[in-house]
Amino acid sequence: MNIEKMFFIPGMFSSGRAFRHYVSFFSEKGFNCQAIEYCRPPNSSLGRVGLEYYTKGVLEEIESGSIIIGHSMGGLIAQKIIAGRDDVKAAVLLAPASPYGILALRYSVIKSFWPVLSDLSFWQNKWEIGIDFSYKQARYALLNRIESEAERREIYDGFTPESGRVAGEIGFWPLDPKKASWVDESRVTCPILVIVGGKDRITPPGVAKAVAKKYRKQTAVTFKKFRQNGHWLLAEANWKEICEFIYRWLINIDKK
Prior knowledge:
Radius of gyration: 17 Å
Order of helices and strands: EHEHHEHEHHEHHEHEHEH
Strand content: 5-15%
Helix content: 25-40%
CATH architecture: 3-Layer(aba) Sandwich
CATH class: Alpha Beta
Number of strands: 8
Structural class: alpha/beta
Strand order of the largest sheet: 2-1-3-4-7-8
Oligomer: single chain
């Protein structure tokens, strides 16, 4: 393949370490891999930063001709990036958060975020607070298909507090006058692979399918559902199978 640079964009609460299996896999395949680390401010001001802040930071690191792989919120940031520049070779969206215009609020999503949604300060402060997931929340929402309790704990221990503004901009886009999660699909030109787990409680399969549909008129889009997977595609039992699928897809688009 001609492409050597690959950037990984993590989701909410996550750091670049969440991609350690993928970085190892694709490095062995000959790619020059870099996992993005968000520049998160202290908790006291964390809720004041939003998607544009994160997107700008990622844009400063992405190089021309690269492949970008985004998970969850990172999948939405990847969508914003490929709509903002035409020099990305390909984008892989893993359980992507949906952009403005695609309603993602399902029962499982509401249940996952209920402790945040039921906190009056989240609304009174117009989302400008830092938020956190308890282990119980994370186990239900994010790690439900991680088989080992020890591994779930290890992943959870790597989580960090997140911006309430980001959560609001993604989950409650009709209330966001700035339309921070909006993506202009007409500007997307690179091929896209959307992957979702059939048992994902944060990005239900129907939501991921709607994301794939958004770009089909502009570019080549492949949609793949792994039926037994949840949201944490990065470390579930068959993570290597998912990486192999991505690798084969990349080889095929490189031949075209």
